[in-house]
């Protein structure tokens, strides 16, 4: 067994331990390379604020490939061209430098397990808010609407059904939590923390990215119900960081299956959530391993979302 990598019985990559300073998130291992970051997308999967002991084979490679697809759309000018306002001269910048394994890493560890699942990125000072955009009423937004008729302080019309499309997308920020759930907040709370100018810029950029991505997804028969973006600051400029528009950060639905009034089939970890909800697990103790069939069906769902979006078979 390679000391730098931990796999589960099905071959899913659960953890990496490379000879560089590391911090771990729920899914990603982030390494400091000095002037850049190396972000490794593992096959870990989380649910109900727990990281499960079973991985989803190739999940990290699929997430990386989807992020790369969207960053390429930005580089091509299809996304975010007008996000800076009426006087903007260029599209949104992002942190991705390369998806190739750097030489200084390949010289010290076996690079093969990293291939297809890494991003080399610029370093940025992270904005401490998730920038959430909702085009459809689902998830925590649906729950809040049922209780208050609002989502993060945004009043919505009465009588909306679960998964209804909103008349226009709404920006609903959330605080970034190190552990547990992020907390939905109003735009006013964001302004109090960051100032109105930066908050307004983040809202404008987030809505522009979402609306442009919505058009690209629609061309491929997909709906993006909602998504969350993260931004950082480099040389006083806001740039898009982290993953972008993947099934871990967004809800993707098939347009030809869309039917409001109930939850939709989505291209993410739906099988995992449904299995755990139906199990005897109390959600207050370490979660049980997933059956092989659940892990396989979840992997298939991620793969289907990628192939629908890109029109390419995932190898």
What report would you give on this structure?
- Belongs to the SAICAR synthetase family.
- Its EC number is 6.3.2.6.
- Keywords: ATP-binding, Ligase, Nucleotide-binding, Purine biosynthesis.
- With 315 residues, the chain is an alpha+beta fold.
- The chain has 2 domains: 5-124, Phosphorylase Kinase, domain 1 (2-Layer Sandwich); 126-280, D-amino Acid Aminotransferase, Chain A, domain 1 (2-Layer Sandwich).
- The chain has 7 helices and 19 strands.
- The strands form 5 sheets. Strands 10, 11, 14, 15, 16, 17, 18 and 19 form an 8-stranded antiparallel β-sheet that branches. The chain has a 5-stranded antiparallel β-sheet with strand order 3-4-5-9-8. Strands 1-2 form a two-stranded antiparallel sheet.
- The protein starts with a strand and ends in a 5-residue tail after the last helix.
The gist of it:
With 315 residues, the chain is α+β, with helices and mostly antiparallel strands. The protein has helices at 59-75, 103-106, 139-148, 187-194, 196-219, 270-278, 292-310; strands spanning 5-7, 13-16, 22-24, 28-32, 36-41, 46-47, 50-51, 96-98, 118-122, 125-126, 129-136, 150-151, 154-155, 165-171, 174-175, 183-184, 222-234, 237-241, 250-254. It folds into two domains: 5-124, Phosphorylase Kinase, domain 1 (2-Layer Sandwich), CATH 3.30.200.20; 126-280, D-amino Acid Aminotransferase, Chain A, domain 1, CATH 3.30.470.
